[in-house]
Amino acid sequence: MVRVHVMQLSSIDLNLLLVLSALLETGSVKEAARRLALSPSATSHALGRLREVLDDPVLVRAGRSMVLSARAEALAPRVRRILEESEALFRQAEGFDPAHLSRAFRVIGNDYGELFIVAPLGATLATAAPGVDLFAVPEPTGGAIEALRRGDADVALGVFGELPPDLGKTRLFRDEFVCLLRDGHPALGRRWTKRRFAALDHVLVAPRGTPRGAVDSILAEHGLERRVARTVSTFLVAPHLVAGTDFVVTISRRFAERLGPSLGLVQRKPPVAPEGFYVSMIWHRRFDADPEHRWLRESIEAEVRGF
Q1: Closest Cα to residue 109, out of 259, 279, 303?
Q2: Under CATH, which architecture does the 96-175+278-304 domain have?
Q3: pTM for this entry
C-alpha cells in the first residue's frame, strides 16, 4: 500500500518562499543571504528545510560552484508569480500613492513606442512619481509575451494580433502609412502610380534584417516587385537615409510628421500600402488588480489620450 503524505499549509513557514526566491535568482547561499539580510548559516538552515519540504536538493554542486536542480529551475517562474501576487495583495490593502512610490517599471517596445509613449511618459512621471524608474527594453529573442509571463517586463507596446487569455490588451491609438521623399525628388513631378512607385529604390525598416515587408506582399498581388536598396533596424534612422537621396521610405504618419519637415522631406500617400494599424499595450493578467501596475497602465493611457 502506497502511503500518501498530505502537507498542511499551516505547517509550512511561508518565509521559506522568500529564501527560495533568492536562491533561485542568485544560485548561491552566500548571495541569497546578503540579499535577504540573513546570516549564511540561517540561509543554509532554510535551504535544508526547503530540501526537506520539496524533496529536492534545490542547489547541487557543479565543480566549485552550485547550480539549480532541474526542479528548482522549473519552479522559478511559479515562485516569482506567487511572490508578486502576494506583494500586490498587501500593497492594495495598504493603499497607494504614486508620489511616494519607489520602484522600477520595464517597458518592452521599439523606437516608435519609446519616442511617442515612453519619452513623454518619463517626463510626466518625473513630477508625478519622482521615485519611479522607467526602463525601455528591446523585445527579447523569445518575444514579448513570454517576457511578460516570466515577469521580465511590466508592459509591452506595439502592434499585436490575437492574444492568449492570460494577457490583457488596451488599444492606445491608431496610425497609418505614408511615403517620405526628399523635396525635389523626380517622382514628385509625375503621376504617382503603383508601377512608378515599385520602380523607385526603397528604404525598409527591418528590425530583424529581412529585406521584405508588407508592401512587397501587396506589390506582388499586383504583379510588381520593388528594389529594397537599404534596410535599417529602427524607424528613427530611415528618414535620414532618404534625405539627400532619391530613396523613398514607407513609414508611419506620426514619424513622418515628427521627422520629415526638419529633414526637408515631403509626404505622399502611397499608391499601395498596408492598412492602418493600432498601437496597443499588453500585460500579464496577474497584474490586473495590482494598484501600482494599474497606475502605470492608466498613466500610459492618459499620456496618449487625444493622439
Answers
A1: 279
A2: 3-Layer(aba) Sandwich (3.40)
A3: 0.69
